[in-house]
Structure formats: C-alpha cells, structure tokens
Amino acid sequence: MEKRGLLYEGKAKQLFETTEPDVLWVTYKNQATAGNGAKKETIAGKGQLNNQITSLIFEKLKDKGIPSHFIKQLSDTDQAIKKVSMFDLEVVVRNVAAGSFSKRLGVEEGSDLPFPVLEFYLKNDDLNDPLITDEHVLVLGLASADEIRDLKEKTRQINDALINLFRKINIRLVDFKLEFGKTSAGAIVLADEISPDTCRLWDLNTNNRLDKDVFRKDLGDIIPLYQEVLDRLTQL
Ligand code: ADP
Ligand code: UDP
C-alpha cells in the first residue's frame, strides 16, 4: 500500500488516500487546539504519543470484540485505517462530572455520576459543536432510530471496556468523546481516535490530570503526562 493525495486536514490529523480504495493513511500532527481552535500551539512529540496511545487502545478494544477502523500502526505518527462514511456526530460519555457538564449544570467537578451519561454533539465547527437531543439527530437526518440505538449500545460497551482498561493502570476514566462511521458494507464501527486529547484521565491516587485539560487550562507541559499514559498502557 502506498500513500496518495491529501484527502482532509483537520486540527489534529491529516488523512491521505492510498492505493487501496477502502484504506486511508492518517498522520497524527503535533498541533494542539482548544476552544474550537481559539487556542492553538505546536507541541513536539504530541502526534506520536496520540498515535501510539490510540493504536494500543484500538488493539485492546479489538481483543475485547469491539471492532474499529484501525488496521495497523505504520510508524510513530501514522496509521492505516478503514475509510468509513462518518456520522456528523460526537458521542460523549461521562462517568464523572467535569468540563462543560459541570459548567452548564452546576455539578461539582469530580462528582461520580450514578450512571454513565451519554450525549450527542453535532460535529460542526461553525456552530461550535452544539449539544443535541436524539430527536435533533433524527430531524437533521444524522442517524436513523436503529442507528441511534446501535451507536448507544456500542458506546456503552466501549465505556465498560475502557473503564476496566484504565482502572488496571490506575487511571479514572472521567469522560471521553467517540466518533463512528459506516463501512462500505454498512457496518457501524468506532473511528477517529481515543487519546488524552479526547478523554479526561485522572490518576486514581492523586487525581492529577493526565489529559488535554492541562493544555486547555494552561497548567503545564502535556508531553510528560501523555508519555505517562502511554508507558502505563504499554505495561499492560
Ligand atoms: P477535526 O476535523 O475535528 O479538526 P482531526 O484533525 O482529528 O479533527 O481530523 C480527523 C478527521 O477525520 C475528523 O473529521 C474525523 O471525523 C475523520 N475521520 C476519522 N476516522 C475516519 C475514517 N476512518 N474515515 C474517514 N474519516 C475519518
Ligand atoms: N471532547 C473532544 N472533542 C471535542 C469536545 C469534547 O474530544 O470536540 C472530549 C473532551 O476531551 C472530554 C469530553 O469530550 O473528554 C467532554 O468534553 P466537554 O463537553 O466537557 O467539553 P470541553 O469543555 O472539554 O470542550
């Protein structure tokens, strides 16, 4: 397989076509953004850490019977992935109150939630990715009722697997964002990435943040923290 032309350049990754029609080449960039791109910095080493962390997590999920778009890691910063037709949705799961949930609903950050809360956001930078209801998903034609059910079921299954995975490495999975796509055969699969950019990960003993909140809130250098997450995952 060979790399072909650039298909899409986003905030964190570049997607390239390949010589195989159903396969894309993704390169993880060193760019960090927050607030829908309002804060933007180049951070050396971030791309390779997120690529390695995502690759490891997708492999672990596969071992648990959860398929994704991931085919294989190609290099420190690159992966081969299945090309899918993306749902214009971000699916967020919250196990612990934090971020926009705490702010919007006045719930203290760090409060355990009685059950995992699942939310849909419209993937649209111009609209700042607004929170939407199931009926909005239907009325906007973003997914059918059956697909919503499937997305929710898969998301809950992934949450269970990820909570267990992170608990083993002494990390509390506070919340995270998933994206899904449809393969050419019509199957819904997990896509995009799972990394400290897309999850809130707190050390179980110290509550220290091991994720992008450190960048969002200007609390320090994220690289040693992302490296810590990778090192712990590698030990599994
Ligand atoms: P953004 O678009 O938010 O700036 P990225 O820089 O991470 O984010 O861009 C990656 C893009 O690739 C996202 O729009 C994501 O929805 C899309 N994507 C992720 N996985 C796949 C896939 N398997 N096939 C096609 N597109 C994908
Ligand atoms: N998240 C993400 N991409 C987004 C929005 C959120 O990966 O565009 C992740 C974020 O890292 C956190 C979870 O989804 O783990 C919930 O984020 P929240 O709604 O609290 O948004 P924030 O205030 O962090 O933007």
Write up what this structure looks like.
It is a single chain. By secondary structure, the chain is an alpha+beta fold. The chain has two domains: 3-82, Phosphorylase Kinase, domain 1, CATH 3.30.200; 85-221, D-amino Acid Aminotransferase, Chain A, domain 1 (2-Layer Sandwich). Helices cover 31% and strands 34% of the residues. It has helices spanning 46-63, 99-105, 134-139, 145-168, 213-216, 223-235, and strands at 3-9, 13-18, 23-28, 31-34, 39-42, 70-73, 78-82, 85-86, 89-96, 112-122, 131-132, 171-182, 188-191, 199-203. Strands 8, 9, 10, 11, 12, 13 and 14 form a seven-stranded antiparallel sheet that branches. It has a five-stranded antiparallel sheet with strand order 1-2-3-7-6. Strand 2 and strand 3 form a beta hairpin. The protein binds adenosine-5'-diphosphate (ADP) and uridine-5'-diphosphate. The site of adenosine-5'-diphosphate has 17 residues, from strand 2, strand 7 and strand 12.
